[in-house]
Design goal:
Number of strands: 8
Number of helices: 3
Strand content: 35-45%
CATH topology: Pnp Oxidase, Chain A
Number of domains: 1
Shape: globular
Length: about 160
Amino acid sequence: MSQTSPIRETDDEARALARQLLSSARHAALAVTDRATGAPTVSRIALVPGPDGAPLTLISELAAHTGHLLADPRCALLIGEPGPTGDPLTHPRMTLACEARFTRQDDPGRAELRAHYLGLYPKAKLYIDFADFLFASFAVGSAALNGGFGKAYQLSPEDLGL
């Protein structure tokens, strides 16, 4: 008996939904590999679309997930929120397979990222210039979009506009 793939052909509706999820995300679940044990671990992070549209966060080197990312920049982000009612699994969400790239205090381009980030999270002004904070932008390699029950898609960075 042959099995039909649950993955649908990516269409413009799926691309639009994925781009909307990406552009509106203000936090995400970040999955990294624990550098000591090799086990997966997950944290919640603040997230914004960067100036280029790619996911961007401001993180502290004091956080365990940052140390894990510095040791192995491969990671995944889960974005999308369940709605106020109904089954959470019927609401759109997307997993992004990524590689983190870092911008430290004295790196070129930091001033632009700083201004952009503060435009979206003005309260970060309290800590954005602390020496342990750096920006991590996420180069997306692929995306798995679940647009709701029976609406699964595999997307490329180009599908996301990246």
